[in-house]
From TrEMBL:
<keyword id="KW-0547">Nucleotide-binding</keyword>
<dbReference type="InterPro" id="IPR037196">
    <property type="entry name" value="HSP90_C"/>
</dbReference>
<dbReference type="InterPro" id="IPR020575">
    <property type="entry name" value="Hsp90_N"/>
</dbReference>
<dbReference type="GO" id="GO:0005737">
    <property type="term" value="C:cytoplasm"/>
</dbReference>
<feature type="binding site">
    <location>
        <position position="34"/>
    </location>
    <ligand>
        <name>ATP</name>
    </ligand>
</feature>
<dbReference type="GO" id="GO:0140662">
    <property type="term" value="F:ATP-dependent protein folding chaperone"/>
</dbReference>
<feature type="binding site">
    <location>
        <position position="85"/>
    </location>
    <ligand>
        <name>ATP</name>
    </ligand>
</feature>
<feature type="region of interest" description="A; substrate-binding">
    <location>
        <begin position="1"/>
        <end position="322"/>
    </location>
</feature>
<dbReference type="Pfam" id="PF00183">
    <property type="entry name" value="HSP90"/>
</dbReference>
<feature type="binding site">
    <location>
        <begin position="122"/>
        <end position="127"/>
    </location>
    <ligand>
        <name>ATP</name>
    </ligand>
</feature>
<dbReference type="GO" id="GO:0005524">
    <property type="term" value="F:ATP binding"/>
</dbReference>
<dbReference type="InterPro" id="IPR003594">
    <property type="entry name" value="HATPase_dom"/>
</dbReference>
<feature type="domain" description="Histidine kinase/HSP90-like ATPase">
    <location>
        <begin position="27"/>
        <end position="182"/>
    </location>
</feature>
<keyword id="KW-0067">ATP-binding</keyword>
<feature type="region of interest" description="Disordered">
    <location>
        <begin position="471"/>
        <end position="495"/>
    </location>
</feature>
<feature type="binding site">
    <location>
        <position position="172"/>
    </location>
    <ligand>
        <name>ATP</name>
    </ligand>
</feature>
<feature type="binding site">
    <location>
        <position position="38"/>
    </location>
    <ligand>
        <name>ATP</name>
    </ligand>
</feature>
Length: 551
């Protein structure tokens, strides 16, 4: 009809579609998972909205996902009775890529997709995966507001059409004409298998050819003792949109002072290092099993955005608005209790399996450090989770601040650290000489950000954290146990006081404004000179970092 318009996809979307269409189809099944999870999201949104306002129409249409397989015509149809989309929503949601991250998002996604296209859902572009299997897709949708419906259609190659589609029920129907080599997806056995694999925890009935194939249950609300490892793993795969297993899982429930049920997972990988920019938080907030805040920014601090899972509290009012969630003191309390418990959990895991914790630390330590520098509230608790190499560890091995404090030398009242680009660089530098000679352990902070972290922390268990490049460093009252006798060096006559003063004066003259002063020191063992930090507020590594960032 004349009312059907043809539109071009946004350039980014075209690139995205190109990647999808030309990628290896090793995990093609995931397009079903993505579409079913979109349908479930739409149902959750509708359910949440209808708590506050009476539906405009189709009030009694049941909340469900219906899948039809037509293996004669090679089509697969997925229908939901969720929130639906208006014409404008169809165009923005299915024609553009909304992403706040870096400009070359699509290139980076292309890189990631080459390795594992199943991650596509993590980046908010899951819908487009349908073009792995589709020759043509039609999306018919009518929004819950009651506006008339529209049909969007595309073969994924540059353009789409959009036009009116009257007479629809509330929700969305996706009709997929399958490619020649993807006709297995018109078989109900294939679809049942995929739903069982990826979508068993969808909290609405998923019906394939009239039969409900998922087991509807909120796993987090069941007693721990009744849940098997396999069920926990399945749920992680579902909630994390992954086929991996989690590194840690934390199932927590409490009745007082607040009713909380939380099931949180630490993934194996840190998606932010793929260069995809900041990830959205991965924890959803429920009240009595009704989703009220997806990817919740309110229920956990930002630096815990790498966690996946759910939090449910029946103390929350069901019809709480997004704005009210942000300001709610109850949500703040939930957040505090959960965060403290989670930090405690990680600490216990670190004690019981240090090797595994080291793996966690390598992948997610950066988030813990972010917590120390950005979140005053948990700073001291987080100190326990930090790990560093030290003069007393093997290369690559790390210790906690507790381990350090517990074996401090006699008379030692501070925790010492020194930053450097590598362990070798630190060990060949002048700052550690005196520590080595006296047998006092010193932490090696090998990441540029580390000195900021320790500077923010300030002290740990009442011991000051002190960078070894401070001018006023004094180990004279500390008696450690030297590892080995220092090698015999031929003793030469020391310079006379006058000669020393003259040398320092000459050096100051040559160096001019580049140094504040040149002074004799008793700290040096083998090196002839070293640069120290006056005032000691910023360590030299922090100054370098600020300079590099142009401040
Ligand atoms: P994401 O689900 O991560 O937002 P997708 O590419 O899967 O990314 O979907 C893009 C958007 O399209 C969704 O955010 C949603 O607004 C809309 N959408 C997709 N499928 C449906 C559906 N079945 N019902 C309503 N809206 C949908
Ligand atoms: Mg999606």
């Amino acid at each position: 009809s004349a009312e059907v318009e043809t539109r071009e996809f946004q350039a980014e979307t075209r690139k995205m579609l190109d990647i999808v269409i030309n990628s290896l189809y090793t995990e093609r099944d995931i397009f079903v998972r993505e579409l079913v999870s979109n349908a479930a999201d739409a149902l959750e949104k509708f359910r949440y909205q209808s708590i506050a306002e009476k539906p405009a129409f189709d009030e009694h249409v049941p909340l469900e996902i219906v899948i039809d397989c037509d293996d004669k015509n090679h089509t697969l149809t997925i229908t939901d009775t969720g929130i639906g989309m208006s014409k404008a929503e169809l165009e923005t949601n299915l024609g553009t890529i909304a992403h706040s991250g870096s400009g070359n998002f699509v290139e980076q996604l292309a890189e990631a997709a080459k390795k594992d296209l199943s991650l596509i859902g993590q980046f908010g572009v899951g819908f487009y995966s349908v073009f792995m299997a589709a020759k043509k897709v039609r999306v018919q949708s009518r929004p819950a507001s009651g506006e008339e419906g529209h049909e969007w259609s595309s073969d994924g190659a540059g353009t789409y059409t959009i036009g009116p589609c009257p007479g629809l029920h509330r929700g969305t129907r996706i009709i997929i004409e399958l490619k020649e080599d993807a006709q297995e997806y018109a078989s109900k056995f294939t679809i049942e298998r995929i739903i069982q694999q990826y979508s068993t925890f969808i909290p609405f009935p998923v019906k394939v050819e009239g039969k409900t194939v998922n087991t509807v249950q909120a796993i987090w609300a069941r007693p721990k003792s009744e849940i098997t490892d396999a069920e926990y793993n399945e749920f992680y795969k579902f909630i994390g949109g992954t086929s991996d297993e989690a590194l840690y899982r934390f199932h927590f429930s409490a009745d007082a002072p607040l009713a909380i049920q939380a099931l949180l997972y630490v993934p194996k990988d840190n998606f932010e290092v793929l260069g995809m920019g900041r990830m959205e938080p991965g924890v959803n907030l429920y009240c009595q099993k009704v989703l009220i805040d997806q990817h919740s920014k309110n229920i956990l601090p930002e630096w815990l955005r790498f966690l996946k899972g759910v939090v449910d509290s029946e103390d929350l009012p069901l019809n709480i608005s997004r704005q009210a969630l942000q300001d709610s003191s109850l949500v703040l309390k939930l957040k505090r209790v959960l965060t403290k418990r989670l930090i405690k959990f990680l600490g216990e895991e670190a004690d019981s399996d240090p090797k595994k914790y080291q793996e966690f630390w390598r992948t997610f330590g950066i988030f813990i450090k972010e917590g120390v520098t950005s979140d005053f509230e948990y700073r001291d608790d987080l100190g326990k989770l930090l790990r560093f190499e030290s003069s007393a560890t093997e290369a690559g091995e790390m210790i906690s601040l507790d381990t350090y404090v517990n074996r401090m030398a006699q008379g030692q009242d501070a925790i010492y650290y020194i930053n450097g680009p590598s362990r070798a660089a630190v060990e060949h530098g002048p700052y550690v000489e005196m520590f080595r000679q006296k047998g006092v352990e010193i932490l090696y902070t090998l990441e540029p950000v580390d000195d900021f972290v320790l500077n923010h922390l300030g002290k740990y268990r009442d011991r000051k954290l002190v960078s070894a490049d401070r001018e006023d460093l004094d180990l004279s009252k500390t008696t450690g146990t030297p590892q080995a006798e220092p090698p015999e060096t031929p003793k030469e006559e020391p310079l006379s006081q006058d000669a020393l003063n003259a040398l320092c004066a000459w050096m100051k003259e040559v160096l001019g404004d580049r140094v504040e002063a040149v002074k004799p020191s008793a700290r040096l063992v083998d090196s002839p000179a070293m640069i120290v930090n006056v005032g000691g507020f910023m360590t030299s590594s922090m100054e370098r970092l600020l300079k590099a960032s142009g401040q």
